[in-house]
Write a structure and sequence with these properties.
The chain is mostly helical. It has six helices and five strands, in the order ααββαβααββα. The protein has a three-stranded antiparallel β-sheet. The chain has a two-stranded antiparallel ribbon with strand order 1-2. Strand 4 and strand 5 form a beta hairpin. Helix 4 crosses helix 5. The longest helix has 33 residues. The N and C termini lie far apart (83 Å).
Length: 194
């Protein structure tokens, strides 16, 4: 009986110590580190502020919602998301899965119709989701495919839209250039408003 009480007291002490350490001290420590200069922006979600209000995150790509006819769409689009705008994650389907092949074929036809090109001209990142499903960037080829439609629907000259694309093109960390979609769309909206 004494051994049981001793073990119970030791267990409760361990529970109390670990609760304080891992339930209070560790979260406070992580929060304190996130306040260090240079880390705060990332810790706060890497928000992109436009006209004094958060417009989105630099790390999470959400495809712009457009409810009009596809050919009148004035925005650059991100890669497709498997889970929709509220979820992230890849599909885990093999490249030969019939459902994935059908989805890619359907996306290719939709993008080709929206952009007014042949399905063979649609880049792979326009129809395939990434592992996260929320990439904030697209390939320069996909951005170039969208330039004529964006220019036509915003009234901007194609050369001006290409300049905006070039200004929002950068490295992806692995040497491949990418175009960040949200800041590009904000720049397009700003150029239209001038």
């Amino acid at each position: 009986m004494k051994a049981l009480l001793r073990q119970t007291r030791a267990g409760l002490r361990v529970l109390l110590v670990l609760t304080v350490l891992l339930g209070v001290c560790y979260p406070l420590g992580v929060w304190a580190v996130s306040r260090l200069p240079g880390l705060r922006h990332s810790a706060e979600g890497s928000l992109i502020v436009h006209e004094g209000r958060p417009a989105g995150s630099a790390l999470i790509g959400v495809d712009p919602v457009f409810t009009g006819p596809p050919t009148a769409d004035p925005w650059f689009h991100t890669r497709p998301s498997v889970g929709g705008p509220a979820a992230s994650g890849g599909s885990n389907q093999s490249a030969f899965n019939p459902e994935l092949v059908a989805a890619v074929r359907e996306r290719k036809e939709l993008v080709a119709a929206r952009e007014g090109v042949a399905p063979g001209a649609v880049p792979a990142d326009a129809v395939t989701a990434s592992a996260s499903g929320v990439d904030p960037a697209i390939s320069p080829a996909y951005a170039e495919l969208q330039v004529p439609r964006v220019a036509r629907n915003t009234g901007l000259p194609e050369q001006r839209v290409r300049e905006l694309v070039a200004r929002h093109t950068g490295g992806a960390g692995i040497g491949q250039p990418v175009v960040t979609v949200l800041p590009l769309n904000l720049a397009v909206a700003g150029a239209v408003g001038r």
